[in-house]
Design brief:
globular; 21 helices; alpha+beta; 8-stranded mixed β-barrel; disordered C terminus
């Protein structure tokens, strides 16, 4: 068809042309591959009512891959197919099921050896589909986050087609070393590397046995004698959490909840964002009894989220880890600063978004949001109108003119707003860090410092309260402006509200993931405060089921683009 020929010219313009002479020894196989792809493109065009040229520009990965190499087979040389199979087997460490890439069929075909042209073409396209899918899944994720776990953006999403094209063009140049290709596209930032290592350790442990389940009972406190202590000791001995000392499964005092075990429970609680008091209560018991299989699912969900996050990386950016209530400043792929945060409670969640920090407000006033006015302040004001003066809150009309609080009908409030003056007790503290978004959220200082010491910090009304915010301000000013080192102190000490605009806006991402790990592969689980894991897990399971239901034969295979 004419459209297909035009497409070949387009691919020739962007391709590297890196096809070995030995790959061009099977003209009959080339003809079969080209015909199969042309037929598949025609079928997709007819089924969707879309011109074939538009389908191809949307990057049918197999078609681009083969058109770039003149439809020469890719996997019939040397040990290429065996190396591909070995590389696919290693995808389990990324939380990707190797069997989803047709591993059983590829092993069978590799063992059978070379057949006729039809079989060579079929094997080649099956291998290519597995290779491209694996590369694209590692680089960009299995799922489309816009459909499953969307985030709001202040601008356009990164162009996905160009990223796919870069991956596909890399694929053609690394056929002799698929494992190296996988490593090149795998997310290269600490959160992914460390969680991947933790998943591999935990998944290997799951091949042996699940961890023991501890029955319900009274609170376990230090010094108590309880038959469940033996099970608790066994459970902590196989815990993936960070423990202060190795925990033996046996002890002379097997049923006594001793100091050593209290220390291990406290470490477990910290690694699960539980109250770290060493007491085994309902929440700690529930966390201990989550099955190992469920924890593996949780890590797979978060490896997928981190693959999405890899799409968003910039040279320098601020990353808010919502579920972990932490914030980090990244530069050149590494963390240069981090601190604790307080994030939105489940009823007022912090939104997931990507924007740019444009300006800082020093000594900010605080205009009370309607939700906080209605749910938090009105009861106090109705009880005692002096609440407003004590907290230096003024009543203003929408033009900013001051109103007399005594003249407001607080039982039917309307037509006014509340604004708190700058100062040490202002809800936003000394600085607010602002970025465009429709949720009216921002980062800010806070007088509520005590919450930073808590293990669970989902306590705000949606904005992100930052520990040690002036350190972050220094980094933002240095990265995004030409301000000097003394400018921040001067602006704060002026004690008046001042907006400082960054000449170079800094990207900011507010993201959500519920499992991470340290560099040694010790995993930390967070409560799924916004109940978002289940949706992603269900979508991954649905895609897995669909992939396994695909028949292995080539007539159906060529009609399903990666």
């Amino acid at each position: 068809m004419v459209a297909f020929r035009i497409i070949l010219l387009l691919v020739a313009l962007v391709s590297s042309g890196g096809v070995l002479a030995d790959d061009r020894e099977h003209p009959e196989v080339e003809r079969l591959i080209e015909a199969a792809l042309e037929s598949a493109l025609e079928a997709q065009s007819a089924a969707l009512g879309v011109p074939a040229s538009e389908l191809f520009s949307a990057l049918d990965a197999k078609a681009w891959f083969y058109a770039e190499r003149g439809f020469a087979p890719a996997w019939d040389r040397g040990e290429r197919l065996q190396r591909l199979i070995a590389a696919l087997e290693g995808l389990g460490q990324d939380g990707l099921d190797p069997d989803l890439y047709g591993l059983v069929e590829l092993r069978s075909r590799a063992a059978e050896g070379v057949g006729g042209a039809d079989e060579v073409a079929c094997t080649d396209m099956l291998a290519t589909r597995a290779y491209l899918n694996a590369l694209l899944h590692l680089a960009l994720g299995r799922l489309d986050p816009a459909q499953v776990d969307p985030i709001w953006r202040s601008g356009d999403a990164p162009p996905l087609d160009s990223r796919r094209l870069r991956v596909i063009m890399l694929a053609g140049s690394t056929l002799d070393d698929p494992a190296r290709a996988f490593e090149r596209v795998r997310p290269d930032f600490p959160q992914y590397r460390d969680l991947r290592k933790a998943y591999a350790r935990l998944e290997a442990r799951s091949q042996a046995t699940d961890w023991p389940r501890i029955p319900q009972g009274p609170l376990l406190r230090e010094g108590m004698n309880d038959p469940r202590v033996s099970l608790l000791r066994q459970r902590l001995a196989v815990s993936p959490a960070i423990l202060p000392v190795p925990m033996p499964a046996e002890s002379r005092y097997d049923s006594v909840y001793d100091a050593e075990l209290v220390e291990a429970v406290t470490a477990f609680q910290r690694s699960h964002h539980l109250q770290a008091d060493g007491i085994v209560g309902p929440e700690t018991l529930a966390a201990l009894n989550v099955p190992l299989a469920d924890r593996l699912v949780q890590i797979r969900v978060n490896l997928e989220r981190l693959r999405w996050l890899a799409r968003e990386e910039e040279d320098s950016f601020v990353l808010v880890d919502i579920a972990g209530a932490e914030i980090s400043f990244f530069r050149a792929g590494g963390v240069v600063w981090s601190a604790r945060t307080q994030v939105g409670r489940p009823s007022r969640p912090t939104p997931r978004l990507r924007s740019e920090i444009t300006h800082l407000t020093f000594n900010p006033t605080w205009t009370v949001p309607p939700t906080i006015l209605r749910n938090d302040m009105l009861p106090s004001i109705r009880e005692d109108i002096g609440y407003l003066d004590r907290n230096r809150i003024r009543v203003l009309d929408y033009a900013g003119n001051r109103l007399d609080p005594e003249e407001i009908d607080w039982d039917n409030p309307s037509g006014f707003m509340l604004r708190q003056d700058p100062g040490s007790d202002n809800a936003l503290g000394r600085v607010a860090i602002r970025f465009p978004n429709p949720f009216l959220v921002y980062l800010h200082d806070t007088p509520s410092q005590r919450h930073f010491a808590a293990d669970r910090r989902a306590v705000s009304s949606g904005c992100v309260r930052v520990e040690r915010p002036m350190e972050l301000v220094d980094l933002l000013m240095a990265e995004g402006s030409d301000a000097g080192p003394g400018d921040v102190e001067r602006l704060v000490n002026e004690a008046r509200t001042h907006n400082f605009h960054l000449a170079r806006p800094i990207p900011i991402i507010l993201a959500y993931w519920t499992a991470d790990a340290d560099a040694d592969g010790n995993v930390r689980f967070r409560p799924d405060i916004y109940r978002a894991d289940e949706r992603v897990a269900a979508a991954l399971a649905e895609q897995t089921l669909a992939a396994r239901s695909l028949p292995p034969h080539c007539s159906r295979f060529v009609s399903r683009a990666p």
